[in-house]
Design a protein that fits this description.
heterodimer; A: about 110 residues; mainly beta; seven-stranded mixed β-sheet; four-stranded antiparallel β-sheet; B: about 110 residues; about 50% strand
């Protein structure tokens, strides 16, 4: 079946602009996660959704970052007033049920802020 | 907080060589331990896992044993193939209520030459 998909695969934006990154999880997966991977680093946890609600948003770096999942499926990560330090690969993952189940990762969106 | 330290790369081996990638961790409680692999152009995939001390995870000829006494989870393979060339990430998940949150190491790039 289809895996986790993310769009766009690449996004170049100017400093100060607003961006939205989309994640389509595996059908039937109730849990969804966002991670950020900076160059030369491992992925870092940003936020975890269980259904429509953000169960844990403790990894969001500041209030310029926000994520939604209005219908419990597709999720959008929103970044306001982008900064060059936001440049990274943003990864989405999904899993069955709650934590402890295997997380399936998408290919990521590479965000470059110029 | 939790952290994962893994062997710096890159690692370059000839086909059929023995592979070890070291991984040590710091965590409270009893985390689960994982190795993820990222093949060129693909998303992160779970390679193997172990959920309690002395467990051995294995998959595709790779093995790792959860060593609580040394807080380690070293990845090994007896005979690598060119197709094993990828970036390998060691990771842990919190125990208890935050077991969905993965903490990753920085990754180790492995190149296997024919």
């Amino acid at each position: 079946g289809a895996g986790v998909s993310q769009t766009p695969s690449n996004k170049v934006t100017e400093k100060g602009k607003y961006v939205e990154l989309r994640c389509d999880p595996i059908s039937g997966h109730t849990a969804l996660y966002w991670y950020r991977q900076s160059l030369g680093q491992g992925p870092e946890f940003l936020i975890y959704f269980q259904g429509t609600g953000a169960a844990d948003d403790s990894g969001l770096p500041n209030d310029r970052f926000f994520a939604v999942r209005p219908e419990g499926s597709v999720s959008t990560l929103k970044i306001q007033r982008t900064e060059r330090g936001d440049s990274a690969v943003y990864l989405c993952a999904s899993s069955l049920g709650d934590g402890g189940h295997e997380q399936y990762f998408g290919p990521g969106t590479r965000l470059t802020v110029t | 907080g939790n952290s994962v330290t893994q062997m710096e790369g890159p690692v370059t081996l000839s086909e059929e060589a023995f592979l070890t990638i070291n991984c040590t961790y710091t965590a409270t409680g009893y985390p689960s331990l994982f190795w993820y692999v990222q093949y060129p152009g693909e998303g992160l995939q779970l390679l193997l896992k172990a959920t309690k001390a002395d467990d051995k995870g294995s998959n595709k000829g790779f093995e790792a044993t959860y060593r609580k006494e040394t807080t380690s989870f070293h990845l090994e393979k007896g005979s690598v193939q060119v197709s094993d060339s990828a970036v390998y990430f060691c990771a842990l998940s919190d125990s208890g209520g935050s077991n969905y949150k993965l903490t990753f190491g920085k990754g180790t790039l492995l190149t296997v030459n024919p």
